[in-house]
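Sharing a chain and its predicted structure for anyone who wants a worked example. Both blocks are below, sequence first, tokens second.
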Amino acid sequence: MNKVFATWIYSLSAVVFTLVIYSCGPGVLSKNTYSNGSGSPSVGSPFLRALQFTASNSAVTLNFPSSINAANAGPVTVEAWIRVDSVPAANGMIYQHQSGSFYPQLYVNSTMHLVGVMANGACGTAYTVTSVSTLTLGKHYHVAISNSTSTVYMYLNGVFDSSYAGTSPMTCTATTAIVGNDYTGASGFPGVIDEVRVTNLALYPNGTNFTPPTAPFPNDGTAVVLYHADNPMIPGSVAPGELPASTTVSVTGSVNSIASPFP
């Protein structure tokens, strides 16, 4: 059984707050230190905290309380904020839905292109869209794939990049999802991930550019997966307002809870 203990350590001389998190279990969520002039533990970004993956086997697993459908035989949008800190050795997985064929999924490949994978019908034949643009190390990106029935559209920072015409809407149910790796543990994401959302809507349809969000995604009833990554107490449960409610969170490898650098 995993146990987590946390404590704040305050230094008067340096006006530094340190949140030290001790985790006993298969994963390690390391301590994070930050400071500001006022002496209050403010992290600055409206996104509060983010996940930094520091090992090839690092992963955060979302264990849903019941099976959810990523697309429900209709449109779906998968999106997140990311920063790639080093070139992935293989595929640096951002999000993988643990359905029968592991779709939808979103990752950065070894040539620094964003790749999105949807599926044909009941999680059958995959159809893949790959960015024309090459990502830049250290740059902040809002990444999204969105399909309206059969065509998948890809966006980088709200700008349409590429598309792929599939054949039918997707139906993929799962009881878990992985952030920062794939189910084998062989596709570690070398960087920072925040604000992961999966929605049963074509939020960004037809290749139309949009303005990326500058505030945390709201729990407005449209998302099936909503993970702000703000709760550093993992292993544990998702924070209030995250979806699905009662989802438990586990960590593999070494993952840092850091002040979010986004947007």
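Comments welcome. The CA atoms of residues 56 and 188 lie 5 Å apart.
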